[in-house]
Amino acid sequence: xxxxxxxxxxxxxxxxxxxxxxxxxxxxxxxxxxxxxxxxxxxxxxxxxxxxxxxxxxxxxxxxxxxxxxxxxxxxxxxxxxxxxxxxxxxxxxxxxxxxxxxxxxxxxxxxxxxxxxxxxxxxxxxxxxxxxxxxxxxxxxxxxxxxxxxxxxxxxxxxxxxxxxxxxxxxxxxxxxxxxxxxxxxxxxxxxxxxxxxxxxxxxxxxxxxxxxxxxxxxxxxxxxxxxxxxxxxxxxxxxxxxxxxxxxxxxxxxxxxxxxxxxxxxxxxxxxxxxxxxxxxxxxxxxxxxxxxxxxxxxxxxxxxxxxxxxxxxxxxxxxxxxxxxxxxx
Amino acid sequence: xxxxxxxxxxxxxxxxxxxxxxxxxxxxxxxxxxxxxxxxxxxxxxxxxxxxxxxxxxxxxxxxxxxxxxxxxxxxxxxxxxxxxxxxxxxxxxxxxxxxxxxxxxxxxxxxxxxxxxxxxxxxxxxxxxxxxxxxxxxxxxxxxxxxxxxxxxxxxxxxxxxxxxxxxxxxxxxxxxxxxxxxxxxxxxxxxxxxxxxxxxxxxxxxxxxxxxxxxxxxxxxxxxxxxxxxxxxxxxxxxxxxxxxxxxxxxxxxxxxxxxxxxxxxxxxxxxxxxxxxxxxxxxxxx
Lengths: 332, 289
Description:
By secondary structure, chain A is α/β, with parallel strands linked by helices.
């Protein structure tokens, strides 16, 4: 375990909604000053966990300490030092970007004048000055997300929760958000972010927890996790889909690793990092007269990581998704 | 051995519509670490009130219900019932207008519950809840802004009434006192709808349920007709209906002959509604959704 003081520490954290165990006994230890990634598919319990840590909902069982304060007994002390950027933009659509920031600054205790100054400063820093007086409902996804993060750092928090900060963003906006997160962490803020994308966690996080069905199935640095699933994945796309069975047979033999058929009828993939065998595989394919359009080494996708760690693919069925959705719904 | 694209952390080489983010400005913007002292309960509530007023500014259609409803109600009931019930619309209006005012404003209160219901399903409430502020401020602020809407509706009804021949014997002071009384009661009644707005699933169900409660309360009252013409069992309900007390007290204030017992009833009901539904709303608000 790392020696840095812990920003978040949970023990046996559980949250149930009716019969659903959305979070099912999670022990988390997030070192201060780092980016901690929580990776998992829809409905894994990521949002529910963040909502408990940000004092929005109470744990059913177990305990959580955030920056040394208990999330139930000392909720106000936690609230005074953390910020939350929810999965669904937590800004007011009917107000302008500037009004949103002034509103939050006022609620944090700024005077009217310093609230306005702070709002202008943030709009400038986040490249939103031109859009300051437009209603947020007319913002693009990336602008909205930036405003959302700006709203979270009106007073720079010691700990920032980011719930799927880049879901649905185009690559350019995503890079901007990543850049903001890097600067934030460099300035001393601890960031806990959830994501569905392995490469995002890999890019940003110092440590990653992989969550599935409310349980933590793996935890470690990106390097450790990748090593545990077999560092790389080989992706092959054939010119002729008809040749796929032959290619699968051949690759399985040469790579000495299971080869999966992708949903794309001409694509196959395999989790392996044996460079010698991979090189041989290309030669063998060519020799067998199988024309290859793409032969790429990459990181395993989240699906492949899940498959490797759990033995089942990352499900994304309706019942699963309902878990996180229910967390947002009212329990009447 | 990875083909994943590593994003280049650009520092000001933007082209196209979206401006790039400069790392140095960002760093400077992140240097605000000291929190000002947390705002007082009043200040936080007023800020939320300001938020609600801004929304009216951005979506002026919201004012439709506080202007058109009162005009429709006043015109319709004055001319529909006036001749039959009091000999002439003008005669009828003297007693009807305070009642219409009560009816209009209480009817508008249901929008409070709807607004909260709509608001609460959006992410922005999560942020408010994660702030270290006086927790009822969100709701109190909304209700404060609603008071502004109620005042506007009252103004519309009274001006229209005066144009139609309403002559209050209590003078401007009496009228202002009556409006103030109605605002107090409406503020109290709103907590019923906020509790519902937080609990119920959709704005529509909030609307339907509250209308189902309000219709009998407004019509089975002394707003339109003298309860003495009603059957005994109904009189029992009408005479104990809080809206009857509010109407009687408002009539008294406007015409300068208020019965202090009626005022006590109104204040009593208001205090009771707040005492029950205020804490209940807050309990529901704090509970997870």
